[in-house]
Amino acid sequence: MAASSNSSLSGSSVSSDPEDYQPPIWKSYLYQLQQEAQRPKRITCPQEMENRPKYYGREFHGMIPREYADELLAGAEGAYLIRESQRQPGTHTLALRFGHQTLNYRLFYDGKHFVGEKRFESVHDLVTDALITLYIETKAAEYIAKMTTNPIYEHLGYTSLLKDKTVHRLSRGRTESRRVTFQRDEKISSSPLVRRSALKDTPEKQCFYEKIHNFKVHTFRGPHWCEYCANFMWGLIAQGVRCSDCGLNVHKQCSKLVPSDCQPDLRRIKKVFSCDLTTLVKAHNTTRPMVVDMCIREIELRGMTSEGLYRVSGFSEHIEEVRLAFDRDGEKADISASAYADINIIAGALKLYLRDLPIPVITFDLYSKFIQSAKIPSAESRLEAIHESLLQLPPAHYETLRYLMAHLKRVTQFEKDNLMNAENLGIVYGPTLMQPPEQNALTTLNDMRQQKLVMQLMIEHEDVLF
Ligand SMILES: [Zn+2]
Ligand SMILES: [Zn+2]
Fold first, then answer.
1. What is the pLDDT of residues 199-225, one digit of tens each?
2. What is the CA(279)–ligand 1 centre distance, in A?
3. What is the Å distance from ligand 2's center to 229 Cα?
4. Structural domains of the chain sorted by starting position, each given as residue range(s) with its CATH number in brackets
5. pTM over 0.70
């Protein structure tokens, strides 16, 4: 397939101005091809076959030679039959006529029929799908190879509106990467004293984080068009993929090109606990998970002087109740003093939420980077290394950690009442926020010291690190 270079399809610039929104124009070419594809023609066996598996019908011809099958199918595009292999008795071959030749596929059955990835209720469906796929992918090979070059995706209203914001995301510290110097004598003067407003109810109801789509193979009922390239999604089943978080429908090949701008639909997010952090904040359009904000707000309201805050554990059945309340009611969950008088229950729920994240706040990818940072002997280089690692965290994780560390710092300011300092908070929070990618008793034990140290340093130096 010689792809012509300099195609008029490629290279056109796409405006992301929401004003330019035009309704997508679905392209019908592949749809027409699907209509043109041959329908299956079942070639039945004239006599009853004794050894016919019960999941095959009269299209089963028993152990006939390949050449004879060829003759039976000759002349009829779309004709098919099943024969038992002569070389490997007990295995079956689907012989199918397409493009004036007989194609032979090893046919499997395990409750569904399949020759490749797609699984079908009936052999007839399998052949229908095969004929569509063969026809389209042969006839339109070049078209398909190029269909992703001029996507309509960015013209679709709901994504272009996000576009502007996405560009500006993370101007916060990554692109401009505040250089923090950690020279001892200059430390205070050079550390930017920033953002002490964290706890006020600032209207932070926006988040510009990147989030990848959560694509799963999907069977569409009725004709569907790809929301990336605007082309028809051909086939009988498993025609494309759908994002289970936002519902975007695209070709499998297009899914690799879709930007990481998934905006989860709240109705698709069933739970709050154990939900990926970025997915949750995107779904709720917040900067941080509301569990973190709400628990911290409650604790700062009535728990800061509570002895052993975060160390003393609350009654686990009540913590479980709080979890259920968040999963059920989201931000309307009642965690006030009238519902749970013991603040350790709220502190316990917050720790449980953080511990149960599918990807910990300090992500698996960066885990060892943080552990290695903690091993650096020089105090300044150590802080610098931690700072570097922090900047690599996904934004939602970074924001959550920043907020939490500012809170824990405030907790330590009440040490004479609550007896909590950066060191014992580090012990409590180390394993909550940091989990090795592969958990085994030995790494856990070996890393405990560093986990604690990373947490302790982040609390103590929260103002310069974040
Ligand atoms: Zn999505
Ligand atoms: Zn597509």
1. 333 444 455 688 899 999 999 988 899
2. 9
3. 4
4. 41-141 (3.30.505.10), 285-355 (1.10.555.10), 364-465 (1.10.555.10)
5. no
